[in-house]
Please model this.
Amino acid sequence: MERRRFIACAMASTLMIPGWSYADMWPTRNIRIVVPFPPGGSTDILGRRTADYLQKAFGVPVIVENLPGATGTIGTAAVARAAPDGYTLLMGSVGTIVTNHFVYDNLAFKIDSFDPVINIAETPNVMMIRPGLPVGSVQELIAYMKANPGQLNHGSPGLASSSHVSAELFKLRAGVQAQHVPYKGSAPMLADLMGGSIDFTIDNISSSLELIKAGKLKALAVTSRDRSPLLPQLPTMIEAGLPDYVMAPWFCVAAPSGTSTEVIQKLNAVLNDMLKDDTVRQLLQSYGATPVGGSPSQIRTLITTESETIRALSAQVNFTSS
Model:
C-alpha cells in the first residue's frame, strides 16, 4: 500500500507542471500483461494478440506473463496488488473478475479492485441436446422438462464454469429442474452428450462448432444477445422465448484500481483501433470470438450487471459443489 501511495503522489505531482500530464509521457518503459492461465488457451491467445498490437502502437516492449493457478485467482490477485501506473494490465474475463467471487472465500481482491479498459471479445455459448431427445427447439425442451420434472440432466466442463452458470440461469428463467453433472473439461462432457449419457448442455461455441456442423450434436440456440456468425441459422435464447437471457462469456483488459483516467482512455482508443483491424477480427472469429470494443464505462456497466446476475444465481445454486 505504501508503494501504491508513493506512485499515486508522484503521478499527482507531475500533473502540477503546466501543460504536461502523466498520460502525455506514458508509456516510457515495458508494459506487462498478466494472463492468469497457462499458455495456449483463449485468454492467452487474446493476451498475446493484444500485447503485439500495443507494442507496435506505443513503441515499447509489451510482455505477456502467464501466472496460472486457482482458476485464475493467482494472476488476477497479482494485478490487483500492482502499482496503478499503467504498466501492469490484466487480460481478464467474466470468470476471473466476477464469477470467482461466488466460488472462493476470502479472495485477495474485489470486483472493484480493477479499472476496466475495454471489452475485447465475447464467446457465445450454445445450447445442445443429445441425439434422440424428442425436442426441436428451446420451448419444446422446456415443455418436455416440465412434463418430466427432474428426469433430465445437463453437463458442464466444471463447477462454476460459464457452461454451468449458463445452464443454471436457463433452469431458473425457464422454471425447470435438471441434475447438473460436472466434468473435467468440455471434451469428455461432449463425448457423453453424443453418447446419450447426459441430456443437454450449454457450452462454448468454439468447443462444439465442428460437432454441430457434422450433425453429431443438435444445437437449439446461442446465448449471446445477437446471433453468431458461425451459426447464423440458430436463434438467440431471447428469440427462442426467454426474455433478457444473455450469457456470453467475455474477455477484457483491466488495470489496477486508481490508474490514471487519461491512461485508461489512451489504452481504450488504441485497443478499439485494434478491434477494427481485419486481421485481428478474422483471428478472433476463427476462435469463435466476436470482437466487441466500446468505452471503459460500457465494460464497467457489464461487470456490474454480470455481478448482480451471478450473485442472485449463487443464492440459489451452490457453485462450489455438485
In short: Residues 68 and 168 are 27 Å apart (CA to CA). The chain has two domains: 31-122+249-315, 125-240.
